[in-house]
Amino acid sequence: MILCEKLPVRGTFKGFENSAWYRYCAPEAFYPLAGELIPLLAAAAMIALAAGLYLGLFAVSLDAHQGEAARILFIHVPAHRVSMLLCLFTATFAAIGLAFNARLAAMATMALAPTGLTFAFLDIWTGCIWNKAVSGDWWQPNPGTFSALALALFYLGFIVLHTATEDWERANKACVLLLLAGAVSILVDFASMQSWTAQQPGTLPGTTGEIRLGTVELASLLMTGLGFLAYGGAAALLRLRCVILERECRSMWVAQRQGRSAP
Amino acid sequence: MSPDQWLEFLQMGGYAVHVWGSFLVLPALVLIELAILRFRKREVLGHLGWRRDQFRHK
Asked: What is the pTM of this model?
C-alpha cells in the first residue's frame, strides 16, 4: 500500500501490521501467493463443475411443460449468480482501492472485470436460448434479463474506461458511478427474486413455478456455482499476475526477481 | 447406457440445439479466455525480457 509505505502505521491500521491481510496488500507479496492459489482453484473448479454439470444433465427432475429445455437453467442460474457476485467483488475492491489507496485492490478490479464479462455473456446467452425454447421469443422483458444486460454493460464500461485512460486512478474513480449502476441492478434482481419466492416458495424463480427445488437440484446449482466461482478466481488471479507485472515493471522487486531466477 | 439411450440423451427431447448450444458455449468461453490470458502473459514476459520459468511462483 502506498499509504503504508509513506506513513507510520497508525489509526485504522494499528494492530494489523503483522496480519496476513496487511502483509499481502503488497503486490510483491501477493504475486507468489496468487501463483500458489491458481492450481488449487483450477482443480476445485474442475471437480465442482464436473459434479454440478453431471447432475444438471443427468439427475435433476424436469417438469412436463419445459421438458429437457429446463436443463439449461442449471447452467444459466449459476452463471447469473456468479456474474452478480463478481460485480460485488469488483465494487468492493474498487472501494477499498479508493479508500485506502491500495494498489493491489485497484489491480484486482482490472483482473476481475473481464472474467465477470465472460459470465455475464454466458448468462445472457443461456437466458436467451432458454427463453426461445420455452416461450418462442429470444427476449423476455423481466428483471432477470434486465439485470443480466445491466451487468454486461457494467463490465464492458469498466473495461473500456480502464483501457481508454492511462491514468488508472482516475479511471477507478469514474468506475464508482458504474458500480452504482451494477449495485442497483443487483438490488432489482433480488427484489424480483424475493417477490417470486413469496408467491411460489420452494421453486426456481422464473420457471413458471414447475421445477421443484429438491436436494439434487440444489446440489447441482450449488456445485456449478462454486465451480464457476473457483474458475473465475483462477482466471482472475492469472490475469492479476499479468496486471501486477505490467504495473510494477519498473519497481525493484520485479528486477530482483528476474536477477534471482536467472542462471 | 446402450447406443439408443445415448442417442435419446443427445436429442434432449427435441431441444438438442438449445441444450447443447447452452452447455457447449461454456468450454468455448473458457478456452477463449485462457487463450487470451496466455497471449497476455507472453506479451508481459516479452516486455520484461523474462523466460517462461521466471513467471512461475517460486
From this structure: 0.85
Cα A73 from Cα A81, distance rounded (Å): 12
- By Cβ distance, the residue of A35, A75, A261 closest to B53 is A261
Q: What is the ipTM of this complex?
A: 0.86
| Residues in B touching A114 (Cβ below 8 Å) | 33, 36
In A, residues 64-93, which contact B (CB 8 Å cutoff)? 67-69, 71-72, 75-76
CB of A246 within 8 Å of a chain B CB? The answer is yes
At A142 the pLDDT is 73
Sorted by where each begins, the domain ranges of chain A are 37-255
* B48 touches A: beta carbon within 8 Å: yes
Residue by residue, DSSP assigns A137-154 as -S---SHHHHHHHHHHHH
- Sequence-distant (6+) residues with CB within 8 A of A181 are A150, A153, A154
Domain that holds residue B21: 3-55
- Our count of domains for chain B comes to 1
At A8, list the grid cell: 507510520
Tell whether B12 is within 8 A of chain A (Cβ): yes
Q: Which residues of B touch A127 (CB under 8 A)?
A: none
Mean per-residue pLDDT pooled into runs of 10, chain A (263 residues): 46 60 81 92 96 90 78 91 90 83 86 94 92 82 80 88 76 72 76 70 59 82 96 96 86 73 45
